[in-house]
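Notes from the 1:1 (GR / supervisor)

We went over the backlog. Supervisor wanted to see one worked example end to end before approving the batch request, so GR pasted a single chain during the call. The sequence is below; no edits were made to it. Supervisor asked that the structure be written out right there so they could see what the output format looks like.
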Amino acid sequence: MAYLFLFVLPREQTNEMTHKYDYLIIGGGVAGMSFALKVARTQKYRIALCCKTTLDEANTAKAQGGIASVTNLLVDDFDKHIHDTMVAGDWISDPAAVEQVVRRAPEQIQELVQWGVNFDKNADGQYDLHREGGHSEFRILHHADDTGAEIQRGLMAAVRNNPFIDVLENHFAVEIITQHHLGMRVTHRTPDKECYGAYIIDPETGKIDTYLSRITLMATGGTGAVYATTTNPNIATGDGIAMVHRAKGLIKDMEFVQFHPTALYNPSETHPAYLITEAMRGYGGILRLPNGEEFMQKYDARLSLAPRDIVARAIDNEMKIHGIDHVCLDVTHKDAEQTKHHFPNIYAKCLSIGIDITKDYIPVAPCAHYMCGGIKVDLDGQSTIRRLYAVGECSCTGLHGGNRLASNSLIEAVVYADAAAKHSLNMIEQYGFNEQVPDWNDEGTMSNEEQVLISQDMKEVGQIMSTYVGIVRSDLRLRRAWERLDLLYEETEDLFKRVKPTKDICELRNMINVGYLITRHALERKESRGLHYTIDYPHNPNGNTNEVW
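Structure output shown during the call:
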């Protein structure tokens, strides 16, 4: 195979701009913004927060259900949350990461509140807690059914009002800068690899500027857009993971792609698909076939509240058995006014396509939702490249193991942002700016015909991944995906070397890189574990053979 993933070296020096920031943050969701706010407290450092689109467009804003934290100590405790996380992760989560996130969660919730984030409370002033699949207690803090949007709103206001943070919207990062760009051969085994910043496209000039930094943070979010249908926004092309992979940083657990069991089935709106939150099943929603028949009793004693991997495979199996393109979620037996109160946005969305969820079943189907793997980091959020940290969905902390427990992602992001901020503040004075970094020469042209090729190839990546690297896999399907991606890789790298880099071609490169990583890691795992289910190795070492699948 041709997957060497070598950097494209910058060409001869031209007139691009060089910028210097103490901190360069690539990505503007909850992970990037909370990190920025934490390091800005020192009032000592210049911070650039770089977003590929606008600050409000991030996976964070799409999160409906909530954020998990032990707050009701009368019935809940840390050990229960830890156990639930380990069970959902199929016992391959890193216990140290689980302990860190669960035990530090309450203090980070309070910090979010101090930044202006509002969580719903009940009549007695206590948090109105939800329960979601895989949780043994009610511990999900929420803001109606748009918790992510509320967190994004609160953090955006705090970031925009902070004089030490420069928000750079519509700035696309092409590559992170390492010793490779100074002419040194860098491999995965190269000791002391370092990050000196990033090459970033200026939206006004179209040129690639050099951003030098003492500390760089990846907070670029997930990878859902590499699939044909996803709940993620179109920007979720795995940019940070791909950039770090090309820089020879360690990437881990990419086979564990979480497919949310219940995205709204609406053929006219597939990318992104509208999420029907897990909290709706915690509220009492029942999964049924379109004829009203329940089916989860065939798969798990927890029924509709089983973890997401089990529910998604169950739905996928029922769809194949019955030759249908969706199943249904039923909340018609619940009080209509309560349903509208708890899920106002879902009610309005469904009503807009002719479905009254208080009277009608909601058509749902699984689609790509969350990447449990990513850039391997330690407990301080450090990657295997010095001076480079990663936080949020683009990182692999070990918390999620084989499958993410519902609502653990947002709390992971803020806990690790805190850990990374503290560690980096202790380290930053050791680092200076590397003045030897060359500018990037972005000579080249892009024709309309080439743009058509890029758009078509993006669609093809989604089709390959959804067809061959989906909820149920086999070695034959995975090898076919590998071969198709290999051809796309060769064609795209050849094009990238000849044209002026643009956001679109860079995103295509990243999607192909990410698709390759998911496929390769899936081929390497010779077992069915968590979110990775293969018909060639159906045995789960925890004792569940999953023969029903």
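Supervisor's comment: The two ends are 32 Å apart (CA to CA).
Batch request approved.
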